[in-house]
Amino acid sequence: MNIRNFCIIAHIDHGKSTLADRMIELTGTKEKREMKEQLLDSMDLERERGITIKLTPVRMRYKDCELNLIDTPGHTDFRYEVSRSLAACEGAILLVDASQGIQAQTLAVLYMALENDLKIIPVLNKIDLPAADPERVSEEVIKLLGCAKEEILLISAKEGRGVTEVLDAVLERIAPPKSSGSPHARALIFDAIMDQYRGAVAYIRMIDGSLLKGQKIHLLGTQQEYEVLDVGHFAPAYISDGILHEGEIGYVVTGAKDVLHVRTGDTVASSPDAAPLPGYKQAQPMVFAGLYPVEADNYPDLREALEKLSLNDAALNMEPERNAALGNGFRCGFLGLLHMDIIQERLEREYNCDLIITAPSVRYEVKLQARNPAEIVRSSLLKPDEPDTAVISNPADFPDPTYISEIREPWVKLEVVCRKEDVGPAMQLTQERRGIYKGLQYLDADRALMQFEVPLQAIVLDYFDKLKSATAGYASMSYEPIGYQAGELVKLQILLLGEPAEALSTIVHKSEAHDVGSIICKRLKDVLPKEQFQIPIQAAIGSKVVARETLSAVRKDVTGYLYGGDVTRKKKLLEKQKKGKKRMKQMGRVTLSQEAFLSVLKRS
Question: Which domains does the chain have, with CATH numbers?
Answer without folding.
Answer: 3-173 (3.40.50.300), 186-269 (2.40.30.10), 287-360 (3.30.70.870), 365-487 (3.30.70.240), 491-601 (3.30.70.2570)
